[in-house]
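job 3f2a | input accepted
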Amino acid sequence: MSSYNKNLVSIYGLSASEKLTNDICRLLNVDRDPMKIIRFADGEILARAMRSVRGKDVYLIQSTSNPVNEMLMELLIAIDALKRGSARSINVVVPYFGYARQDRKAKGRQPITCKLVANMLTGAGATRIMTIDLHSPQSMGFFDVPVDDLHTSQQMSKCILNIIKNEKINEEVTVVSPDHGGLIRAREISDQLGHAAPNIAVIDKRRPKPNVAEIEFVLGDVKDKICFIVDDMIDTGGTITQAAKALKKHGAKKVYIIATHGVLSDPACSRLSEVIEAGVVERVILTNTIDIPKEKIFKGLEIINIAPMVVDMIKAIVESRSLSDVYTAYNDELSLAVKKDFKKIK
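job 3f2a | predicted structure (346 res):
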């Protein structure tokens, strides 16, 4: 980074994103700045930056994943500590934004908690927010500071292309959205892959209650196709596993699952393991926006490292370059790969 001054930029990682922060610092060739987190006997949290942040542009990395409330509170306290330490800017990187699904009033007398959390982050002192695949992009409007909602569609497309190439797939490929809300993502990935994945399908579902999904029908031709289900997250795994079963029932030859956030609340791991062992799903691919503990690693799970993408975005911000240019470069790289490698398969 030509404009990256180690004396003016500090990178901190909190409890939920230590591994991701270490990867980011390694790629940036900088040391991770130490943040001391103390938990008192009654559950209170104290955060203290162990080096001066006065006049610095600080990047604070923390997913608000399980335990959501504790990780959120830790993040808020760390932001306040940096603000009171006179940091010039506090750029908060939230790879997985908890409470993002509570972005509207689905029923009377319900909260819009996503807006509440946005207010808390900006009120604590965040001057910029960076998220990854925010559940609803319009939630960016809840913030009164700049928000960069980074997309992993290029990483997903690259993963799909590698599977097609490495496994020498000759059948037609269909990108599948597990619901109507994810259709934009599926179309974006299909467009990026061009003739490598020309088909799109969507699964119609309804939710009678939270974390419960019922499949109504599959819209699109999936018979004898290689299907890639793409989604923003896997929580309990009910929707995604039912979607995979529905695709196989409708004649799909192979099914792969790709999602950004591996929330993996119980019984997600057992559900995903079952469909893999039963031959319904070939593989489950997640990114490392959430650090997946060893006890939740199962056979057939693969992890995509999104640290390089975050690094590219941080570099662009530090150098005052457009983030759109980074996406354009990714798309150009994908287009070249499709033209070069896909011809060898077809």
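job 3f2a | The CA atoms of residues 245 and 280 lie 6 Å apart.
job 3f2a | closed
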